[in-house]
Amino acid sequence: MARMHDYDQIGALWNDWQGAIATRPADPPETILSDVLRTHGTLVSSQEVSFALAGADREASRSAARFTDCMVALLGDPALRLRHAFAAFDADADQTIAKTDLLTVTGAFADTPEEAGLLADEIDADGDGRISLADLVQYLDGAPPPVAQTYRATHVPDHHLGAFPGMPAPSTATAKPHPDHDADAGISPLHLRIGFFRLMQGAAYRSFRENYSANSETHIRARDLPYTIEDFARFTTVTIDYYLALGLITDAACIAEFRRLDEIVQAELDRLHTRVRTWPTIPRTPGMLAAQAKIADERDGLSRRQHLCRAVMELVLSLRLHGLRVDRSGVDALAGHEINRLRHQDLRAETHRNASIPRPWDADTDYRDSWNRVILSDADARIDGAIMPTRFWYDEFMPQLLLCASLITADDLRHARGTTEQDLDTWHAELRAQGAFDRFATDLRDGFAACSFGVKRMLKQAWILTAPYLTGIEKRRERAEFGRDSGFLSEYVAFIDVHLGRNDVATADMRLSFPYYIGPAVWAFLHGSAELIETMPDAVRRRGTDRFAAFFRGFATMYPCPYCRYHLNRYVIRNREVDMYPVEFLLLGRQPGRHDTGITLDDKLATITAPGALRVFLWKLHNAVSSSIARTEPWYHRQPKPLYTSRFWPSIEAEMARSAASGHDAVAIAKVTEIYGITKPAAHLAVLRDELTRALRADDKASVAQTIDRAEGAIADLELAIEEASFLTRKYAYDPAQAGLPPTVDAIQETFARSGVFVER
C-alpha cells in the first residue's frame, strides 16, 4: 500500500501499531511503526516516520485522531489529502465553507491579496460565495502535476514510498588511533581556497535562476528572502575585496584575475539590464523565448494558481499535523517545522530521484543554450526580459572562478598558464590508475578524455578543490540514505556537468549545499581569515574589518544553503532564540543603557573594530548557530541538559569523546585546564541565560535589566579566558606550509564523526 486512500486503512494501521507497541514496550514507537508499514508492503525508514510523528509531539502514539493527521500527511493519496484538509475547516450543515475561510490560509502563499481572491473566485465556480469539497476536486481536476518545489506537509517524495533502498555496507577500513586534537590545528592555503570557492559557486548556483530561502513554493517567511542577481553581483565584489584584503595574494597578475571575475559578473548584469530595457525590440533565440514564456505563464497562468491551491491544502495538513486550527495559520506557528521539513525534503529530493518525472530540458539539446529567469530584486516582479543565458555560467563564470580559487602565488598562475594538455592527460591517467575516481567521481573518470583542453584544465582544478571532501571525514558524516556512499564530481561542482555528459544542474540534482560540504569549509574560511586580519598592523587591520563587515552583509543575502540562510536571517541575527543562544552572542553589540535583546546586525558588526574582536565575534556567532541549528540525523542532539548551550565549543565532553574514540584513557592536563578555563565563565552565563529567559517571558523589565548588567562581567571573563588561552589562534592560524589534505578515514574515525559530539577541530 504505497498510498492510503481511505480512513479505514489508517484505522487498521493504528490497530496494528498499538498491538505491536504493547508487545514491544522497549522499542521506539517510530521503529515499530516502520516495521508495521513494512509488513503492509510500504517501506519507509524509521527516520522518516519519526520526522512525521514529531509534528504531533508524540501524541500520535496515544490518539487515533492525531495519528490520522500524521498518516494522511505522510501516506495519504491526493484524494484523501484533499478530503482531510477540507475537513479542517468549519463547514456548515451543507458541507460548504465561505470563501473567506479559504482566504485565511491562502494569504500565506499568494503574492497579493488580489491573487488570493482570484483563486477563491475560480474555485467557487457557481459564484454562490460557498466552496465545497467537490468544488476543490473539480478545480484541481486536470491541473498540471506537482512540481519538485510544490509545498508538501511532509518531506517524503511520492516516488520514495514503497521503494526505500537497502543500506550500503559500512566501511571496513583498518582501525588506527585517532590523531591528537591539535593535529587538526591550523588553516592551510587550500582551506582558504576551498572556502572561497564553495561560497562563490554556491551563491552563483542559487542566483542563476529563480531561487528563494527555504523553498520557492512554500512562501513561509521566504518570499522576502530571494536570491537576487543584484545581490549576487554585490556579493561577488565584496567577497573578492575581502579575500584580497587578507594579504595573501600580492602578485599583480593574480589580483587581475580576481578583478576579471568581478568584471565579467558586472558586465553580464549590465547586459541583463539592457535586455530588460530593450526587450520588445531585441532579437530572441528559441531559448530566450522559452524562458520568457515561463515568466508569462507564472505571471498570468491558471497553472500557478492551481499549484497555489494544492499548497494551501498541504498547509492545512501541516496545521492538523501540529494540532493547530486553520485560523492559526500564521507562518510563525510552523516556522520550526518548516526549517526541518525543507532541509529534509531538499536532501531527500537530491538523493532519491524519480526517473519518471519529466526533466525541464530536452536531453537532445545543449542545456547551455537555455535561458533562465532571474530575480532582479526583493520585489520579485516577473519582468519581461529578466532572463540570463545559461552559457555564461558554464563558459565564462565557472572557468574564471576555478582559476581564481586555484591561485595564491605567482607560481600558481604560471603553473595554470603553463600546463599543457599532455600534462593534464598524464595527471588524469595516473589518478585513474590509482582508482581515485572510482568511488565518487566516475563522471570525471569516464568523461575526461572527450573534453577540450580548456575544460580538462577546469576539471582538474575542480577535482583539487573537491577531493578533500569526497575522500575526507565530512563526506562520511552524510546519512547513508542521503548519499553517503554515492556521488559524482558534477554534483558538488556547479556548471561542469554538461562537459561530463550529465545534467545535474538542469535537473537541480546538486549537492553543493549539503551541510557537511558547505558548513565546515565556510567556517574554516571565516575563522582563518579572521586570524589573518588580527595579525595585521592596526591601520591595515581596520581596513580588513571594514571589508569583513561589507562581506558579511552580503553573506547574509547569499549563503548557499537556503535553509541555513533562512535561519540566519530570521532567527540568529534577530536574537529570536533567547533560550538557545549563548548570552555573549545575545548581548553582543548592546548599547550602554539598553536592556533588551533587540540588537541589530549592524550593532553586532560595529564591535569588530577593536583588536581581537573579529576573532571573538566569529566564535560567538559559530556557537550561536551550532546551539540552535536543526538536523534530522538521529545522533545529532543527544545532550538533553547541556552545560551551557547545545554543542558549545570548546567542550570537555567533546574532548573526552575524541580521546575515547582514539583508544586513549586520559586527556592531557594542559588541555583540560585550558578548556575548563573557558567553560567556567560559560557555566556562570548559563545560569544567567536561564534567568534572562524567565524575565523576558514574564516581561519583568527590572529583572531583565539586572540580569543583563550582571552578564556583562561574566562575558568579560569569558572573552579574557578565550584570548589568554590563544585557543582560536592555535586552531585557525594560517599555516602556509600545511598541505590541507585530509588523512585517510578509518572505521574508528567514521564512528566518532557520527557520535553526536564530533567537532571539526
Structural commentary:
The chain has 761 residues and is mainly alpha-helical. Among the domains are: 7-155 and 301-350, no CATH class; 575-754, no CATH class. The protein contains 32 helices and 4 strands. It has a two-stranded antiparallel sheet. The protein is globular and about 75 Å long. Residues 162-181, 215-221 and 354-358 have low confidence and may be disordered.
Summarize this entry quickly:
Residues 111-146 form the EF-hand domain. With 761 residues, the protein is an all-alpha fold.
Instruction: Please report the distance between the alpha carbons of the first and last residues.
Output: 47 Å
The main β sheet shows up as: 2 strands, antiparallel
Number of strand segments: 4
Oligomer: single chain
Overall mean pLDDT: 82
Organism: Salipiger aestuarii
Domain ERV/ALR sulfhydryl oxidase: 510-649
Cofactor: FAD
Protein name: thiol oxidase
Task: Considering the chains and any ligands shown, give keywords for the structure.
mainly alpha, 761 residues, 2% strand
List the helices and strands and how they pair.
Elements lengths: L6 H17 L5 H11 L6 H9 L9 H12 L2 H9 L9 E3 H8 L6 H11 L6 E3 H8 L48 H19 L21 H17 L6 H26 L8 H15 L1 H20 L13 H17 L19 E3 L13 E3 H15 L5 H9 L2 H14 L7 H6 L5 H18 L2 H5 L11 H4 L22 H20 L3 H21 L3 H9 L12 H4 L14 H5 L7 H16 L23 H10 L7 H29 L3 H24 L2 H6 L14 H7 L8
Antiparallel strand pairs: 1-2, 3-4
Helix pairs in contact: 1-2, 1-4, 2-3, 4-13, 5-13, 6-7, 9-10, 9-15, 9-22, 10-11, 10-23, 11-15, 14-24, 15-19, 17-19, 22-27, 29-30
InterPro entries: EF-hand-dom_pair, EF_Hand_1_Ca_BS, EF_hand_dom, ERV/ALR_sulphydryl_oxid_sf, ERV/ALR_sulphydryl_oxidase
Enzyme class: oxidoreductase
Cofactor: FAD
